Amino acid sequence: MVPSENTVIAFDLYGTLLSTESVAKELAKHFGGERAATVAATWRKYQLEYTWRLNSMNEYIPFSTITERSLHHALSENNLSLPSEDALSSLMSAYDSLSTFPDVPPELELIAQNPSITPVVFSNGTQKMVTNSVYHSPDLSPLSKIFKDVITVEEVEKFKPHPDVYFHLANKVGKSGEQMGEMWLVSGNPFDIVGANAVGMRTCWVDRGGGGWVDGLVEGEKGRPDMVMRGLGEVVKGDTDGADVRKPWKKSFD
Question: What span, in angstroms and rounded, lies between the C-alpha atoms of 79 and 27?
């Protein structure tokens, strides 16, 4: 259980702490750099699309299986194939050792110095996939002690942005449904931000591309993040009063 006076900050894993584009290095061994980048982007697109479709169908397939099936989809769409089962295994293993974004290590180390913040990993991945990434990947494993828990959607058999996954997060950190506003989600994925907003969480969108918030699904403040950052340590914009938005983070950023 997390003490009620602590601020819980839930970090999304894929696309926020870890760069899914970094798997292109492994793909490049088979297809060259340009094709590898295209396949990596397509792979990620279908990986996410499959989760949303499953939510709509009220069905569940483990994220590890989705990841493999979406890879086959991406390869087929690009008229490519892998030479062997060993090559497939190597690519799937590469997902356990994705690179962190450059801004991740210094900011996590800073957050670790603040005892009033409880950082957790919160991911669509299976428990095995996520724990492998957090505790064994070359980039992220040196930072693993920073996280107080690794929380996945596997128990509820739904994917982000289904409301159940955010309430599951709350339950795992000792918060009730009435305390959703005491938790922050940090994510580079707009669909995740909108989903967390819908259940009353505070949200911080990591806009590394610098394109600004353009998601138009939900109108008004509920459809926008509380904070926008170019990287984990750089506050770009808060949609409410700056002091109020930053209060839970103040000791880390100031």
Answer: 14
168/87 Cα distance (integer angstroms): 36
Contact in structure between 197 and 205 (CB atoms under 8 Å): no
Which two three-digit tokens encode residue 199?
Answer: 């259940």
Query: What is the phi-psi region of residue 150: left when phi exceeds 0, alpha when psi lies from -120 to 50, beta otherwise?
Result: beta
Instruction: Please report where in the chains the tokens 């913040």 appear, as a residue.
Output: 117
- Report the candidate in 247, 163, 175 with the shortest Cα–Cα distance to residue 204: 247
Residue 207: helix, strand or coil by DSSP? Answer: coil
Q: Which of 179, 183, 184 is nearest to 227 (CA)?
A: 184
Which of these, 152, 138, 151, lies nearest to 105 by C-alpha position?
138
Residue type, position 176, single letter: S
C-alpha count within 13 angstroms, C-beta hemisphere, residue 6: 20
**Mean pLDDT over each residue of the chain, to the nearest integer:** 88
CB of 108 within 8 A of CB of 117? no
Q: What is the pLDDT of residues 203-226, one digit of tens each?
A: 999 999 999 999 999 999 889 999
Tell me which residue of 48, 49, 13 sits closest to 140, measured CA to CA: 13
Output the six-digit token pair for 78: 């690009």
Query: How is residue 131 written in tokens?
Result: 């724990």
pLDDT at 28 over 90: yes
What are the structure tokens assigned to 124, written together?
């669509």
- Rounded to two decimals, the pTM is 0.89
- 248 pLDDT above the threshold of 60: no
Which residue intervals of the chain are DSSP H helices? 24-31, 33-57, 63-77, 85-94, 104-112, 127-136, 163-172, 190-198, 242-246, 250-253
In one-letter notation, the amino acid at residue 53 is R
